[in-house]
Amino acid sequence: MPHRAYDAILRDSSLNGESFRNTAIGQAVIAACPADASALLRYDPAVLLFGGWDSTGLHGNKGQERKWPAAVSVEIYGTHATPIHRAGGRLDPLGITLDAGRVIREGASYRLVPEGEKAPPGAERPSEINHGNIAPTISPKGVLVEEIKLSGALSLSRLRRYRFGGDESQDVAARTLLALMGIYGIAAVIEDGLDLRRDCELVADSVAWAIRGTGSSEPLAVTVADARQALKRALADIDLASPVLFTADHNLEQLRHQFIDNVGLIPLFGAGFVEG
Fold first, then answer.
1. N or C: which terminus of the chain carries fewer CB neighbours within 10 A?
2. Residue 71 — pLDDT band, cuts 50, 70, 90?
3. Greater pLDDT, 204 or 200
4. Considering 122, 144, 166, which residue would you say is the last residue of a domain?
5. At CB < 8 A and 24+ separation, what contacts does 130-135 make?
6. Number of folded domains that form the chain
């Protein structure tokens, strides 16, 4: 869900007939603060890593909306970018032209307007059903770059601001878990490769990790396997919630069905907290 624990999907869902924001889970998530972020750690630790904003309460918490800055920030950028364009068109090998006549769609098929008969409203050119020539057009495609880099940071300073309702050792264990979630997540994505879009798949040819402080930088050895094992050990010290399934309220169901009626799509739907 785009807004994670604060998403409108959850706001408009219920657990055993009780609205999310009125459940014990919802109340704990809403009340979470840096002095005690244990509820977010338990139910949706992604908020503490990637940030969140409780902006979907429909003024039920106006003036008290909680904002959590992101502790993880990653960007991909290219150097010496040059905009490029692409040409699109179609040259029909059968030589079908506009003179061949107009067509009328009929369900999944179509029929030709008889020769000499005036084309009725809605009749289309052959090119509109993928026959005939389509004149070339020029459109922006993107950019060419000399080099592409991925640069990111996991802010340990941000995580140190959070407490988790226990003693210092529990706070350290929680921060360690969050840091390892971020490290493993980034390392796993880099190892898998970045399939950003068609014609844009990135594979890292070198990766460098470092712990940086004021005026200092210490190299850090990170592999996906080591990060995964460290994360598993850290998870053993933290009591994360099991998945909880919420049911869509009537209003949300009505909006969803209206979307299906208007667009003709049947989306898969579910709302819930998922462990990990």
1. C
2. very high
3. 204
4. 144
5. 130/90, 131/92, 131/94, 131/96, 131/100, 132/90, 132/92, 132/96, 132/97, 132/98, 132/100, 133/89, 133/90, 133/91, 133/92, 133/96, 133/97, 134/88, 134/89, 134/90, 135/89
6. 3
